[in-house]
Amino acid sequence: MRGTFHSIARRAAFVCAAALVIAALAGCGAVDRVRGTTTTSVGATTDKEARYVSPENPLARPIQVGWTSARASHCGFVFNPDQLRADFLASEARMGVPPEMMPKIEHAYDYTRQSVAESIKDDINYCSKDRTAAIRRDLNRYLTGDYEPTARMAR
After folding, report:
1. At what angle do helices 129-143 and 81-94 cross, to 10 degrees?
2. Measured between alpha carbons, how far is 31 from 64 in angstroms, rounded to an integer?
3. Separation between Cα atoms, residue 155 and residue 152, nearest integer Å
């Protein structure tokens, strides 16, 4: 009997926490942006757009991690981009992102990674010393599970 009570209490706590997150996001219009009900696109279309995404943007994490993955791949970093994506999405799910919002996060990540890769593919001077140092810092942070949206082009 006691195990059942704890199981119900844990589920209720999770539902309450998820409801609070949704309510907080709804208050600032973030749910609309994540759901795609605003006119803004999902993800970044260029290197510059990804670089300057606001940390308050509900899609800042997938945009910046996808951006870093595209940049690191372009500059020849040895890592598994598919594993980075899987680890990032698993982290988002563990943080309590509602399941119905996960497709938007996946789309923002994939769209940004593909768009940025396309926008930088012909730039032979892209991988400068300062830029690769910034990419290395961000990529290493992401590979350890820290996905806070603080990536920048070069520091």
Report:
1. 50
2. 19
3. 7
- Tokens in use for 10? 């844990």
Q: What is the pTM of this model?
A: 0.70
d(CA 68, CA 23): 30
How many domains is the chain built from? 1
Structural domain containing residue 79? 41-143
Residue 121 lies inside a defined structural domain of this protein: yes
- Per-10-residue mean pLDDT of the chain, 155 residues long, equals 51 45 44 39 79 84 95 97 97 94 96 95 95 95 90 54
Contact 154, 133 (CB under 8 A): yes
CA distance 63 to 9: 35
In the numeric block, which tokens belong to residue 144?
A: 């350890």
